[in-house]
Each structure stands twice: as structure tokens, then as C-alpha cells.
Write a structure and sequence with these properties.
heterodimer, A: BirA Bifunctional Protein, domain 2, 2 domains, 12 helices, rod-shaped, B: Phenylalanyl-tRNA Synthetase, Chain B, domain 1, Phenylalanyl-tRNA Synthetase, Chain B, domain 3, Phenylalanyl-tRNA Synthetase, Chain B, domain 1, 5 domains, six-stranded mixed beta sheet, 33 strands, 30% helix
């Protein structure tokens, strides 16, 4: 066979193999094409290769070179086709399937908005070094009043303004030690926890107490006979009102997300002296935040701290108010009705 | 306290000041500004007066604050009414039978008074300070004067028509049961023993410190007037006022204490104005019975304590000026370094000042809290999150992921809810004297008693929330609550924190959600669960949980009886669990376990066992027999074919997964384990393998 004819056959083979490989739409068709062109025994390339022997000796080097080039080209075309098919799916569309249908119901529960607010308050105060402490909700009036410097005749102790327990139930008559050590009321403030903590731990202290407190207001849009308070207390040598103001400003900055000024207005609480109301300047007006002050020396004496050794500040705020402002809740009763549609919003 | 801008100017020159400027300064120094109403030629400024500052329930007191803040002189009248009548002691008598309720009582007598309308200026000031000038009604000149003096200096006064007092006597005593009094509001009040009354020789004529009586009030016929200026015990006034639901400007002030040294001043001031405006003749002298209160004790005041508490220095001359302007006497302390330690004697009208710290507050509020910096370098400190908070948070994560929402419900419930269930104590619930009002759905609980039972379990509360949600057609109602319950104990109740759940899902679904929660506390935490016999729950649908042998909780489907009581549409599954056990078990930082890289082998078993054999028993035997390669025991299903297997039998299908940490297990090894499982189940539970 003349060289020209041999080469022409090879060139023809390349074109046909390339067409066959490209036309294959599935693995089976491609495999059939591979066997047709590259089959080791009966492939068409093999057939052409056998004719190399009939090419004149002088032309054999050129013919051999051309044969190798063609073999490489056909193999490359096969690899290309293989790669193409690996990235092509032969899956069939299921016309009955509607991907816009809703999936099976999957509902997430929600953490109560009051808890969410409490967690946020704990988080912020934690960053400022305040550790949460807990105490009993059923208290003796010594912890709820006396130790907090609320005298026996103070109006805050009025039976109509507190949830005193109906006594002499099953344990018999009360001991007569003026309310010390005998549970007689639902606490009206979380400051009781400060007293218990100071009784148990020497200074320095940096604590917050958060929890339920109780006062017999008839429930309406803005009142509920049970609510939550956060109280903070810091006691150490050299704690001043400048520390108090700074901590409250940092708290406000973290809570509101902006640096906001803090304002103190004089007020009166039996357990702090001086006592102040705290306001934040927010959205163009002063917003009441809560009460604060320097721990009254009588309170330190009641728990066995020396007021000439240490000073401290305390502050308190209502969690419901913060929570309601935060989430746009208009009726405090919604918080405790627990309608699941209400809870699902937060 | 509503003050009239015009009235204030009787005591202080307000020239050059605006009412807004003054109100703002007062607000930032202790008298919170509520509102200002413009009036004809005047302003009515409403100031909130804290309970420790009764001196500011008076125009003079507010004027004094302004005089200190703006450093302007205060003009306090000095009433010296001229007596021209006979000595009062020959005409009237006063006795105090209850000095603990009335420490002091003074009386002056004016004869020949001409009762008539008050002059316009007096009516105007009273109206402007009344809170409602449009509705204000002047009474008569004498009554108006007593009100004027009260709002001038804070001392409540009362004027009696002397001729209506039987025997010309005033007796301050406690009321007797059965006595009644028609007050000047023309309502009749039943008196109770212990209430302090002013009586004449026959009958009560006034409620001490609260309101006068109708029969002895000043009328057009009155000629002779007895002026009472007294001190009544705050607690007694408050209690009587509360009991009778009768409050007055007078009771409000007595409840907050009056200036003892101001009693006589007020009496003289009142007499002076009556003589001026109503004529008459003042009898000589005064009846003044009871005890004089001791003068305020001097306070040792260390100036360095100001900076120690406030964090700022205040110059000594400023401190001295502020304290003096407020009425304190300031002298060097005789036995201390007089430049740094003073002796300060507070004024009689400031009974709230008795300690050094009280004086520091005075300095702070007048000097200005705006002087205290808000960018002080507070030392850093680390805080820790308590384990109980970490535990509660992990539970919340799992339960909310499982579609349950957190509820918060009141700690007090009515008896009918409290009595639904009390798994932790047989003691009756604690009760409160006051009930919670407005917290119960009274449309449903229309016959429920007061909400005064301190709850012993969260389950009744959660069922009530479920009922309410069912009523409102809200779906689904999947709730949990983490809260305290209160179990009676002596001397203090025990207040365990519980996790309560209430669900419309099946018992086993809820159980499996909870199992996920326990694993979040400690991976692989295993609780002992056993069937419980508890009539609150449907028969055979209750479980009791133990952790390390301690009672931990319970879970079950409520009985039909309970369901009917609450008119629930569906049998709810409820449970509650002690958080303390989980707090103890909490693994704060989970530790990595080595995982096998070798394949697992599964073996299925189909056992025929008695109906009474519980999965928990079967699982325990399988686990014990499974050996060290046992990875999981999975329950597949239960199948009952009484025809083939006989009555009282069931088939339980389960799958064991075996895997070794160190090698690929062979079929032979797995078969050996399977044989051991079959053998042990047969021996211990008479389980037969289905061939």
C-alpha cells in the first residue's frame, strides 16, 4: 500500500472515531464505539495497523509516526467523550413531582421572651464581671425588709401590699423572733438574694440576682402580681458612685447598641443611700431604667460587713418593662397567658 | 404635691427664673417633675415627693429647696398673733389617753370669729394648688385657712366649732367597737377598737389625723373656733385610713411624719390668719399636752467620706454652704481635726437626716449628680455561668428544637388547680393572705376560689395553659416550663426547680424528646425508668424516672378523669423532672471518644416472649449478654400473632450492632455474640427465637 493511501485511511479513521465518540449519548454507546475503533482484537485502528506491513520499507518510518499520532488522537477523543458522559445525567424528570409543595410540618419551639431578656441581661452583666446568684422566693420578712433597712412601720410592709403566707398551717405556731428564719412571704424584691449572698460570702462581690418577685397588684395592661427583677450588687474597698454610673453606662451601651448618656435623679430606697433613679438618653428622650444607689451602711451592718471597710453599689430594674419595650409587647398579661401564637413570635 | 408658682413667691423671689428651669432643677435634685399646668397668671407644678421628704409636701419646703439650688434667700413668716382673750385653760381642756397614737396635741381658741367666704387671693392659691382649679370649692374662711397653712408648712390642722364640743373637752383616745362617726364628707364610718379618735366628753368628733366630724365642723353659725395642731403616729393613721378606705391630705402627711417643732408655728400661723381674715379674739396661751420630741442629735461628719462614696471631691466651702442652706447647723467637731470633721445638726423638719451618709446624699443631690463621671476605670473581673443556667440552657435548646415552646406561668393557682396533682408532697399547699387578682381565666373557672395556693407542681399549671390554648384553637400546644415549685417545710419550704412538659404527642414521642434532652446534659446519660401506678395518669401510661437511685421525675398520659375536669379535647402527656439532678449530672465540657474505623455487623432477632415482658427488661438482658463489641440495641417492632404463638405472647424484633475498636469482626465472632444473646434471653426471660 502506498504511503498516501495509508495516511488517508488513518485520517479518515480519526474523523470517524471522533464523530462516533461525540455522538454517543450513553456509556453503552460509547463503549460500543470504543470497541469499534480501539478494540484490541477487531478494532478498526488495529485493522489499519496491520496494513503497515504492506507499506514500502522506505515509507515505514513516516507511516509509523503517523499511526502513533492517530492512535493518540483517537484515544484523546475517547477520553474527552468519557469525561463528557461522566458529567451528564440520564435521569428522567418525574412530572408528578411539584417542588413548590410545602414539606412536612417542622415547627421550632421558642424560648419565652422574658427568658430571652434575662439571658441577654445575664450575658451583658457577665461581660462586666457580674455572676448570677439565686435565692429562695419564699422569704422571711427579715431578709425581705429588716436587713434591707425597711423599718417595721414602713408602708412597704403593709399586708395589702405583700403576699404574706397564711400561717399556722401544719407546722403549728410561729416562733416569735420577729420574722427572722421563718418563711412568711413571697419576696417582693430580689434584693433578698444580695443579703443572703453577703451573709455567706466575704467581700469583694460582683453579683446579679434575677428572678420572680410578687406584689399584689391586680393584673391589667401594665401590672401583674408576679414579675421579674434584676438586681446588681458590687461591693469592694473603694467602690464609688462613679463606678456605678460607669457600669450602668456600659450596660446601656451593650443593651441598646450605642453609647448613651446616663442620668441620675435623686430618689429614696431604704436599702441605698444615696439613692437615685437612673435614666438613659435614647431616641431623643430620657427613658427610665431603674433604681440604684450606694449600699446603705445599715444593710452592711445587718450582714456583718464593716461599712468603714467596704463600700458598694446596688441597682435594680424590672425585666418585664425592658422585655415589653424590646419586643413591642403592649399588654403584660400576654407574657403569662402563654398563648402559643404569642410565644411563637419571638 | 402640686405647688402654685405664685404661692411660692410668698417665700422666695423667683424673678428671672422660668417655671421650666425651676422644675428641671428640682427634678434633678429630688423632686421629680411630673407636669406643669398653665393657669391664669400662675403655673401648677406637679412634683413627686418621695416618702422620706414630707417637708416638701408644703410650699415652704419646696421654696427652701429652690432657695438652696438657686442660692436665693428664703422668707419664712414669723406669726405672732396677739392674744386678747382670757386664758384658754379656763375654757377648754385636752387630755391624751393614748400617747402612743398621739404623742402631742396643742389647741388654741379664738372667740367671736366671723365665718364667711375667704378672700379672693386665698381662694385662688388654694384652687391653683388643688390639682383641679375648675372644680375647686372654697369651704369657708376658717376651713380654707387651715388648708392653706397645711399646704404652706406641711402640718395638718383642724378647726372645731368649739361650742359643739360637749363639755369643752378634747379627749384623744381609741375608739370603742360600735362607735360611729359621720365625717365632714357626710359619710358615716363604723369605728373599730384601736383606731385613734378625737372625742369630746360624749362621743368621737374626729378621726385623728384623717378627717373631722360633721357635728363639730365650722358652719355659718360658728362663733368660737378651737384650732388643733397635733402629732399622730404614722402607723396608726395609715392603718385607720386603710381600714376605712378614707384618705385625705391630712392622713397623707401624718403617714409620712410631720415636723414636731413646726406644730406650734402652724398653730400660731393659723390663728394669725384667722384674726386677720375672720376677726375674733385669741384666748391667751396654748394647751400643749403630750411630750416634746427630743431635738435632732448632732452627726459626726467626716469630709473625706464624700469622695469615698461619690467618687468626686466637693470643696469644703460648697459642702458647708449646701448643708447650712438646707437648715443644718455646721460646727467644727470638738474632738477631731476640725477642718476635716464637722458636727452637723440637722433641722427638725428633716427627720430623714440622722447619719453621715444622709448628709453625703444631701451634698450629692444639691452639688449635682451630673458632676459624677460615667467613664471611670472600673477594675476588671471575671464572671462565671452557674451550672444551673448551663443546664437550663441545654434543655431549652433541645426542647425548642423539638418544637416545644417555653411557658412562664404564675406561682399561685386556685385550690381547684392546685388539687389536680401534687406528686412531690402530701402536705397541703401553702397559701397567701392576699390572692392574685386578674390572673385566672374566670370565664372557665367561674366557681374557682381565690388564686392563693402556692403551687407544688408545674403540671396543673401547664394543663391549664393547654386548656386555654385549646379553647383559643391554637395548634399545636407543645409547652415546657422551668420554674420553682414550693413544697411546705419547716422552717422554710423547699423550692426545687423543675422542668415541666405538656404535650399533645404520644407518651413515647415525648419520652424520646426528653431522652435527647438528657443526652445534651451528659452524652449517654442513662436514667432508670420504670412503670408507675399513679391514678392521675391513664392506667399503664405512667413512668417514674430515677437517676443514680434518686427520684428524678415522672411522665405520663393524663387520665380521662383529669381530661374531663379540664374539658381537654385530647389526652395530654405531662411530666416533670428535678433540675438539681441534671445540674449534678451536667458534663460542662463533653470529651471526645475514640471511634472505630472498622465495619459494623448487624444481627436481627425476632423473639417470642410473654406479653408482660417489658422492653426495658429485654434490653437489659441483651446489653449484658452483648459483650464489649455491642454498639447499639435497636428496638424495631412488636407483633402479636396469638393464633401462631398463643395468647399472652408477643414477638419483639430487635437489631444488634456489633463493632470492634481494633479489628474487623468476622461472621463467626458475631454469631458467638448472637448465641450468647439468644441463650441469655431464653434463660432469663423465656424468650424463644422465631426460626
Amino acid at each position: 500500500m502506498a504511503l498516501a493511501e495509508f495516511v488517508q485511511q488513518l485520517d479518515q479513521l480519526v474523523v470517524e472515531a471522533d464523530q462516533a465518540f461525540s455522538a454517543a449519548t450513553g456509556q453503552e454507546a460509547l463503549e460500543a464505539a470504543r470497541i469499534e475503533f480501539l478494540g484490541a482484537k477487531a478494532g478498526r485502528l488495529k485493522a489499519v495497523q496491520k496494513q503497515l506491513a504492506t507499506v514500502p520499507v522506505a515509507d515505514k518510518p513516516a507511516a509509523g509516526k503517523r499511526l502513533n499520532e492517530v492512535k493518540a488522537a483517537i484515544e484523546a477523543a475517547f477520553e474527552t467523550a468519557t469525561a463528557r458522559l461522566e458529567n451528564t445525567s440520564d435521569e428522567v424528570r418525574d412530572e408528578t413531582f411539584d417542588p413548590t409543595l410545602p414539606g412536612p410540618a417542622w415547627s421550632l419551639g421558642k424560648v419565652h421572651p422574658i427568658t430571652q431578656t434575662i439571658l441577654l441581661l445575664k450575658d451583658i452583666m457577665g461581660r462586666l464581671g457580674f455572676t448570677p446568684v439565686e435565692g429562695p422566693e419564699i422569704e422571711d420578712s427579715w431578709h425581705n425588709f429588716d436587713a434591707l433597712n425597711v423599718p417595721a412601720i414602713h408602708p412597704a410592709r403593709d399586708p395589702l401590699d405583700n403576699f404574706y403566707l397564711a400561717h399556722a398551717q401544719w407546722w403549728g405556731a410561729q416562733s416569735g423572733d420577729q420574722g427572722h428564719g421563718s418563711a412568711d412571704m413571697l419576696r417582693s424584691q430580689t434584693s433578698t438574694v444580695q443579703i443572703r449572698t453577703m451573709q455567706q460570702q466575704p467581700p469583694p462581690l460582683r453579683i446579679i440576682s434575677l428572678g420572680r418577685v410578687y406584689r399584689p397588684d391586680t393584673a391589667d395592661e401594665t401590672h401583674y402580681p408576679m414579675f421579674h427583677q434584676m438586681e446588681g450588687l458590687m461591693v469592694d474597698r473603694g467602690v464609688t458612685m462613679a463606678d456605678l454610673k460607669t457600669v450602668l453606662r456600659l450596660f446601656a451601651t451593650a443593651y441598646l447598641g450605642n453609647s448613651v448618656p446616663v442620668r441620675f435623679r435623686p430618689s429614696f430606697f431604704p436599702f441605698t443611700e444615696p439613692s437615685v433613679e437612673v435614666d438613659y438618653y435614647w431616641n431623643g428622650r430620657w427613658v427610665e431604667f431603674g433604681g440604684a444607689g450606694m449600699v446603705d451602711p445599715n444593710v452592711f451592718q445587718a450582714v456583718g460587713y464593716d461599712p468603714d471597710e467596704v463600700t458598694g453599689f446596688a441597682f435594680g430594674l424590672g425585666v418585664e418593662r425592658l422585655c415589653m419595650i424590646r419586643h413591642g409587647i403592649r399588654d403584660i398579661r400576654d407574657l403569662y397567658t402563654n398563648d402559643v401564637r404569642f410565644l411563637a413570635q419571638f | 404635691m402640686i405647688v402654685s408658682w405664685k404661692w411660692l413667691q410668698q417665700y422666695i423671689d423667683l424673678g428671672g427664673l422660668t417655671e421650666a428651669e425651676v422644675a428641671q432643677r428640682l427634678s434633678l435634685s429630688g423632686l421629680n417633675h411630673e407636669s406643669t399646668e398653665p393657669l391664669a397668671g400662675d403655673w401648677a407644678i406637679d412634683l413627686e415627693v418621695t416618702s422620706n421628704r414630707p417637708d416638701c409636701l408644703a410650699h415652704l419646703g419646696v421654696a427652701r429647696e429652690i432657695s438652696v439650688l438657686f442660692q436665693r434667700p428664703l422668707r419664712r413668716p414669723d406669726p405672732q398673733p396677739q392674744a386678747s382673750g382670757p386664758d384658754i385653760s379656763s375654757l377648754a381642756q385636752v387630755q391624751i389617753d393614748c400617747p402612743e397614737l398621739c404623742p402631742r396635741y396643742t389647741a388654741r381658741l379664738i372667740r367671736g370669729v366671723k365665718i364667711g367666704p375667704s378672700p379672693a387671693w386665698l381662694q385662688e392659691l388654694l384652687a391653683n394648688a388643688s390639682g383641679n382649679p375648675a372644680e375647686f370649692k372654697s369651704i369657708n374662711n376658717v376651713a380654707d385657712i387651715t388648708n392653706f397653712v397645711m399646704k404652706e408648712c406641711g402640718q395638718p390642722l383642724h378647726a372645731f366649732d368649739f361650742d359643739t364640743l360637749q363639755g369643752g373637752r378634747i379627749i384623744v383616745r381609741t375608739a370603742r367597737d360600735g362607735e360611729v362617726l359621720e365625717a365632714i364628707d357626710h359619710k358615716t364610718y363604723p369605728l373599730q377598737a384601736g383606731m385613734c379618735v378625737i372625742a369630746d366628753s360624749q362621743r368621737p368628733v374626729a378621726l385623728a389625723g384623717i378627717m373631722g366630724g360633721a357635728t363639730t365642723e365650722i358652719s355659718q353659725k360658728t362663733v368660737n373656733v378651737l384650732i388643733e395642731a397635733a402629732d399622730f403616729a404614722p402607723g396608726s393613721v395609715r392603718q385607720t385610713s386603710r381600714r376605712l378606705k378614707l384618705a385625705s391630705d391630712s392622713s397623707y402627711r401624718f403617714e409620712r411624719t410631720v415636723d414636731h417643732a413646726g406644730i406650734d408655728w402652724a398653730s400660731r400661723r393659723c390663728c394669725q390668719l384667722i384674726l386677720e381674715l375672720c376677726g375674733g379674739q385669741l384666748c391667751a396661751g396654748v394647751i400643749d399636752v403630750g411630750s416634746q420630741t427630743a431635738a435632732p442629735a448632732p452627726i459626726r461628719f467626716r469630709l473625706d467620706q464624700i469622695a469615698r462614696l461619690l467618687g468626686i471631691e466637693v470643696h469644703a466651702t460648697d459642702v458647708e454652704r449646701i448643708l447650712q442652706a438646707l437648715g443644718n447647723q455646721v460646727e467644727p467637731h470638738s474632738t477631731s481635726d476640725s477642718t476635716r470633721v464637722w458636727q452637723v445638726t440637722p433641722p427638725t423638719w428633716r427627720r430623714d437626716l440622722s447619719r453621715e451618709v444622709d448628709l453625703i446624699e444631701e451634698v450629692a443631690r444639691i452639688h449635682g449628680y451630673d458632676q459624677i463621671p460615667e467613664d471611670h476605670a472600673v477594675p476588671m473581673a471575671v464572671s462565671t455561668t452557674p451550672r444551673v443556667d448551663l443546664t437550663a440552657q441545654r434543655l431549652r435548646h433541645v426542647l425548642t428544637a423539638a418544637g416545644m415552646s417555653e411557658a412562664l406561668s404564675p406561682s399561685l393557682v386556685p385550690a381547684v388547680i392546685s388539687d389536680l396533682y401534687s406528686p412531690w408532697t402530701e402536705q397541703p399547699a401553702l397559701t397567701t393572705l392576699q390572692p392574685m387578682l386578674g390572673v385566672l381565666d374566670t370565664k372557665f373557672w367561674n366557681t374557682a376560689g381565690p388564686v392563693d395556693h402556692v403551687r407544688r407542681s408545674l403540671i396543673p399549671s401547664l394543663l391549664e395553659l393547654r386548656r386555654l390554648n385549646e379553647f383559643r384553637h391554637t395548634q399545636p400546644v407543645e409547652l415546657f416550663e422551668i420554674a420553682k415549685v414550693y413544697l411546705p417545710g419547716n422552717p422554710f419550704p423547699v423550692e426545687p426547680t423543675l422542668l415541666g412538659v405538656c404535650s399533645g404527642r404520644s407518651l413515647l414521642e415525648v419520652k424520646s424528646v426528653l431522652a435527647a434532652a438528657w443526652s445534651a446534659i451528659q452524652p449517654g446519660l442513662r436514667l432508670e425508668v420504670e412503670e408507675a401506678n399513679d391514678p392521675f395518669f391513664a392506667p399503664g401510661r405512667a413512668l417514674r424516672y430515677h437517676l443514680h437511685g434518686e427520684a428524678f421525675g415522672l411522665l405520663g398520659q393524663i387520665s380521662q378523669v383529669t381530661q374531663k375536669k379540664l374539658k381537654l379535647k385530647q389526652a395530654a402527656v405531662v411530666g416533670e423532672f428535678h433540675l438539681a439532678a441534671l445540674v449534678a449530672a451536667l458534663q460542662v465540657v463533653p470529651q471526645a471518644q475514640r471511634q472505630s474505623l472498622y465495619p459494623a455487623i448487624e444481627r436481627d432477632f425476632n423473639f417470642i416472649v410473654d406479653l408482660s415482658v417489658r422492653w426495658s427488661a429485654l434490653e437489659a438482658v441483651v446489653r449484658a449478654a452483648g459483650g464489649p463489641w455491642l454498639e447499639t440495641v435497636q428496638y424495631r417492632e412488636t407483633y402479636i400473632d396469638s393464633q401462631r404463638d398463643g395468647a399472652d405472647k408477643k414477638r419483639v424484633l430487635l437489631t444488634l450492632t456489633l463493632r470492634s475498636l481494633d479489628e474487623t469482626l468476622t461472621g463467626k465472632q458475631a454469631d458467638a455474640v448472637a448465641q450468647s444473646v439468644i441463650q441469655q434471653c431464653g434463660a432469663q426471660l423465656h424468650a424463644k427465637l422465631v426460626q
